[in-house]
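Deliverable D5.2: sample structural annotation.
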Amino acid sequence: MGELYPAEPATNLMMGGIGVSNSNGIYANSINPALLARNHYTVFEVGVNTELKTLQDYRQKQQVFGGNYESLQLTLPISNRWTASIGIRPHSAVDYTTKSYRRLNLLGVDSLIYGYEGKGSVTKLSFANGFRIGKEFYLGLEANYLFGTVNRNVSTQNMSDGQFYKIQLENLNSYSDFSFKAGLAYRHSLKNDLYVNVGATMDLTSKMSATQLNRFAIMDLSGMNMINADTLRNTYDFSQNLPVTTRFGLSLEKIAAWMVGIDYSQTDWSKVDNNLGRSTKQLPVSTKWSIG
């Protein structure tokens, strides 16, 4: 599916990425759906993301600069105990292009070009609800619809025989399914507008439905026009394993003055595979601490 976008919006990233236990009514919390219930005003948020990446080995170095929208989210209070939110944001993306050259011994010149290209993305459309139960206990559920396509190509072009085309192996994955996340939070008053907050979230979905198509294609040099194509494997269904994340948060807050908190998250990557026909080493469980 590509590289996953961070779950934290800009308002949380400015505080070190924390947000499992802390929130307020000025911005919408997209980390823990339970804390939406603290929003009593209609909020519309727009986020933009830019990034600079460096790809390097012992011989070459490549820098890529790009960007995308980070989120579009509308939060609506339904009652004094129920707040709903709807939004759209990128979930993952693939965007790379590399080339390598092979010298043919017969000619003694660089005459064979290998191209590796991957493009595509998965978008997440979310609908979340947060509820206040009792005085300061919160529950939330987020439903997401994930959809998108990712295309990975490997191409070769023989420059020695005057070819004006390239042969390309295409691997096209299409994704479409629902995922869910649950959250809870508790806010306890100490004294003089001083509160201690605790929260937790858990992904409830570990798989999503997908389809894959494999084919050979003959393209012109621009890569835009297809001359001929031969399907190697018709479109078939498979399940894409997803990383599952569990988060915990603790924060201390003085109303309208200051707040300090710490978050811990654990993501299980052990069942995630690349579905490209190659075996890969099992990925470990990753952990992350955030303080802000």
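Annotation notes: The CA atoms of residues 226 and 280 lie 32 Å apart. The chain has one helix and 13 strands.
The annotation will be released with the project's public dataset once the embargo ends.
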